[in-house]
Amino acid sequence: TRRFLMVLAMGLAMGASLLISGEARAKEDPLPPQFKYAGGTESLSQGCEGNLEIGSEGLTFKCVGGSVSAPYASISLMQYRSDVSKKVRKMKVKWTVRPDYVTPLIGGRRNRFFTVVFRTGGAIRVVILRVQPEAMRHYLAEIDLRAEKRVEVESYEEY
User: Fold this and answer.
1) How many helices (H) and strands (E) does the chain have?
2) Which residues sit opposite 40 in a β-bridge?
3) Which of 21, 103, 129, 147 makes the best surface tag, with the fewest CB within 10 Å?
4) Which residues pair with 136 in a beta bridge?
5) 40-87 residue pLDDT tens
6) Which residue, among 147, 141, 76, 156, has the nearest Cα to 111 in the 3D structure?
7) pTM for the full predicted model
8) Residue 22 has pLDDT above 60, yes or no
9) Measured between alpha carbons, how far is 6 from 12 in angstroms, rounded to an integer?
């Protein structure tokens, strides 16, 4: 039993050191950009690459060209689809990058566009992000939980 305890202690020590070095590495090497600004009402350049942060108060997309935050309480619609829905395309908002230019490029049967519609300062705002299913899969449940709203996902993909 003494030998077993010694091996167990060594294993725990090695595991702890790997965990600590993994945390340090994660701080040094942030995630590569997984999202691209594909369209919407924001003054970000089309194709601006960045990441989506799921905070306690809202979603924030940050890229080199700037950032945009959508408080959960102000979100009226979230979709993850292979295209931008007709409902969103037909919205009467001040588009900086129109979704009509986004939709025909991809199509197919893989979801790629995460759309968030929200209201701030009396104006309806839209953010359309392009993201691969492999990356988005990790975000869906947490967004549903934090926002207390469902992301509408096209049903043919396995999540």
Assistant:
1) 4, 8
2) 97, 127
3) 21
4) none
5) 999 999 899 999 999 999 999 999 989 999 999 999 999 999 889 999
6) 156
7) 0.76
8) no
9) 10
